[in-house]
Amino acid sequence: MSELEEMRREKDAFFRESEHSPLLPEQRKVFTGLNYFPENPDLRLEVEVERFKEQEQIQIQTNTGEVQTYTRYGRFTFTVDGDPAELTILENENGYFLPFADSLAGTETYGAGRYIEPSRLADGRFEVDFNDAYNPYCAYNETWSCPLTPPENRLKVPVSAGEKVFELKD
Predict the structure, then answer these.
(1) What is the tally of structural domains in the chain?
(2) How many other CB atoms are found less than 10 A from the CB of residue 77?
(3) Cα(22)–Cα(13) distance, rounded to whole angstroms?
(4) Residue 35 within a domain
(5) What is the DSSP string of 114-128?
(6) Of 57, 124, 144, 145, which is least packed with CB atoms within 10 Å of its CB?
(7) Which structural domain, as residue segments, surrounds residue 59?
(8) How many angstroms separate the CA atoms of 38 and 32, rounded?
(9) Rounded to two decimals, what is the model's pTM?
(10) 74 vs 124: CA distance, rounded Å
């Protein structure tokens, strides 16, 4: 079992068994696992991030109407199946944050977008692994407050990696 498969297995167990799961008790009773794209090594990236000269703070609204503050850290470019794309990494007191929505949002992936926590590497680059892309907790339970994907992080390309849209299986 790969490290990613093990992580997914552990996440499914947490969702099914933990009292801290974002699933409602009635959902946990019938939960059999999350839906994922197959692991895609081409979407495990180490990228150069062009840090913004001005570290502008932005307010991002959540699905529940609250506002969260982030700093626009920097931008990176990459390709998906030969198509160019670019995303902005945000930062707050909890670390680096990458909310994004791809062209599959609303069909194969959660409509409001998915999240990644990029890791800064020793050489200053960042690891951005789209295989780790996950749905915010509000995708499972609307009482959770989740930041919405900013317009600059809405991609026109499909990112077929990570977690798919949530559906309870019968």
Answers:
(1) 1
(2) 12
(3) 12
(4) no
(5) EEE--EE-TTS-EEE
(6) 124
(7) 41-153
(8) 17
(9) 0.93
(10) 12
